[in-house]
Amino acid sequence: MIFEKVPVFSKSCIIVLGGDMSHHTTVRKTHLNDIHKKYGGKLVDFHGWELPVQFEGIIKEHMTVREAVGLFDVSHMGQIFVDGKDARKFLDYVNTNNVAKLKKGEGVYSHLPNGKGGIVDDVINFCLDEERFLVIVNATTSDKDYKWFVENSKGFEVKISNKSDDYSMIAVQGPKSVEIMKKFVPELLNYPRFGIVEKEVMGQHCYVSRTGYTGEDGFEITAPHSIIADVWEEFMKLGKDLGVKPCGLGSRDSLRLESGYLLYGSDIDDEHSSYEANYGWVVKLSKPNFIGKELFEKQKKEGIKRKLTGISMEQGIPRAGYKVFKDGKELGVLTSATYSPSLKKSIGMGYMPLGLNIGEEVEVEIRDKKMKAKITEIPFFKGGVFYFKLG
What is the 3-state secondary structure (H, E, C) of the chain? Predict the structure, then answer.
């Protein structure tokens, strides 16, 4: 594709920044790139994608989602389709959660265990029909997940297709998102959280789901590139009287952290298990068999030595990578941390030893200065529609 001739770049297009081709940086653009510029988005390189970190401001966008409705471009997320007679059986094998129980139109959040005590990715599995499933995967792991699926599909009658380059995706998040969906895809409101419907939108086959990953009610539309800009503008039109605003990566991160949701590559990875991440609820040991089941059974029986632990601070703003101390001894390193607009204080989480109590005082090292913090329950913010107590 000669990308100079198209108005909006696709996922597969790249641009080269800088003049030295031997040390160039490639950045991929979504089909909403021009839309972001139109609405004043401040664009940054996010894991090789040019995406808006903010529009009007992170705090304003954060509170818009908590109180009204915001739009996010999540086109960098991946879509892997699994079809065939053994699709359900196969996905149940490669997932920790119970995929086998899903009915048409239902979905479930889960982890893909690597069989070595870590996590390949965290995903959402949607049942489109008895032998058709859609798996939404993370931006930086779509190729990794696809290869993992193929490698573990021996003996299963399935067709696995990575169509991450074929679709764009918009998330409509916030308590007033329901009002938009009443006008856009009203049938989805008949489904509980993690529901999905297939629907013709603007003449194109689309997938509309309801996950609310910000802790608020929320919906996502996975659509062909050709209509995604028009879908965005339609959402802006439908939400005009509801206070809808475009939102960027900054508020997306603060919203999900407040709600205790994990960021793959930071909070979970190939070195940490679901139990250590406080997400043991996604591990269904009652299932007959799945990758790494024996290791999970061992951890369940013998216990873990570290777990993802929350901290909060009244002063100072911590960042991922900052160290946490207790009585001069390092406890761990923050995997995610930021300022919480909802709570008006700083929050963070990282892997620390067991035995720390809620309210216990610790210190976070910020620019060579140790500042007061305390162990805090996760999720930090419990005012949203969708939140859960980790454990």
Answer: CCHHHCCCCCCCCEEEECCCHHHCEEEEECCCHHHHHHCCCEEEEECCEEEEEECCCHHHHHHHHHHCCEEEECCCCEEEEEECCCHHHHHHHHCCCCCCCCCCCEEEEEEEECCCCCEEEEEEEEEEECCEEEEEECHHHHHHHHHHHHHCCCCCCCEEEECCCCEEEEEEECCCHHHHHHHHCHHHHHCCCCEEEEEEECCEEEEEEECCCCCCCEEEEEEEHHHHHHHHHHHHHHCHHHCCEECCHHHHHHHHHHCCCCCECCCECCCCCCCCCCCHHHCCCCCCCCCCHHHHHHHHHHCCCEEEEEEEECCCCCCCCCEEEECCEEEEEEEEEEEECCCCEEEEEEEEECCCCCCCEEEEEECCEEEEEEEECCCCCCCCCCCCCCC
